[in-house]
Amino acid sequence: MARDFYEVLGVPRNADRDEIQQAYRKLARKYHPDVNKDPAAEERFKEINEAFSVLSDPDQRARYDRFGEDFRKVPEDWEERVGAGAGPGGGFRWSTGGGPRAQYATSGFGSEGVDVDDLFSSFFGGAGRMRVPGADQEAELPLTVEEAYRGGRRTVTLQGPSGQRRYEVDVPPGVTDGQRIRLAGEGGRGSGDGPAGDLYLRVRIQPHPVFRLDGRDVYVQLPVAPWEAALGATVPVPTPSGATAKVTVPAGSSTGRRLRLRGEGMPGPRGANGDLYAELRIMVPPKLSDQERELFEELAAVSSFDPRRTR
């Protein structure tokens, strides 16, 4: 599965040159092999450089936006070749989702003396027959946080022009929101003996009642009792794997304190896992027993602590 260059740099598809450059510099500093000794850092650094070299070049970026990962197979002068065939009532229309398509008319190409078959043959090979690749298509793949964590095989049903179609999809563990999964040859059908386009499933991770994602890092609110926060305690915390981890709450902790569990976030197929951050939230009993009330009143009487005092 090839990663989308925009995803590699973490920028939207409409990012301008400055945004792309800033994202590249930040990632390059983080993953440069001289700085990052993680074994996967070098490959990640190469991936970042490749993405930047393409997206920072207007011509390469235009071809990549139109043709995806196959953009290097398209001649650099494809716009000139297409433009040469455009005439009154005829021409080419390029689909943003994939390959070129002929737009037929009663006049235009013939009157300009342009042979459509020859023009397409120069693009895609073959002799005497037009081979038009099918357009790439895209659909959303909704996943829960747990499904994105585990990955695995899923059956996806999509509604198309000819009815519903079912696909078996291998979801890699640790997919992130916005990542694309490619199903080769499952896109639009080609014309003549042209190959079919590809279907891209864009992952959309659904909101979760417990977990909040930021890239591969996972955030979870961790309720603790006042005495646990004051005295310190070891408490359980849920993880997206379904297992329960243990975290040590230091004595004297307040609401909002963030405790880090290294590697307990989303899996990282090309490097280290993300981290899990437990954000403390001090909770008091909604209804006090007589003994609890007495103890809290005693604490209030002997304590000099004032949470509103400016330090």
Q: Taking Cα atoms only, what radius of gyration do you get, to the nearest Å?
A: 28 Å
**CATH level-4 homologous superfamily of the domain at 211-302:** Urease metallochaperone UreE, N-terminal domain
Q: Please estimate the helix content.
A: 25-40%
- Choose one word for the global shape: elongated
Summing up helix and strand content along with how strands pair, one would put the structural category as alpha+beta
Region (Disordered): 156-195
Domain J: 4-68
InterPro entries: DnaJ_C, DnaJ_domain, DnaJ_domain_CS, HSP40/DnaJ_pept-bd, J_dom_sf
Pfam family, one: DnaJ_C
How would you characterize the overall build of this protein?
- Residues 4-68 form the J domain.
- The protein is an alpha+beta fold.
- Among the domains are: 1-56, Helix Hairpins (Orthogonal Bundle), CATH 1.10.287.110; 137-205, HSP40/DNAj peptide-binding domain (Sandwich); 211-302, HSP40/DNAj peptide-binding domain, CATH 2.60.260.
- Helix content is 29%, strand content 25%.
- The protein has ten helices and 13 strands.
- It has helices spanning 5-9, 17-31, 41-55, 58-67, 78-84, 109-112, 116-124, 145-150, 226-231, 290-302; strands at residues 91-94, 100-103, 137-143, 152-160, 163-171, 180-183, 199-205, 211-214, 217-224, 233-238, 244-249, 258-261, 276-282.
- The protein is elongated, with a radius of gyration of 28 Å.
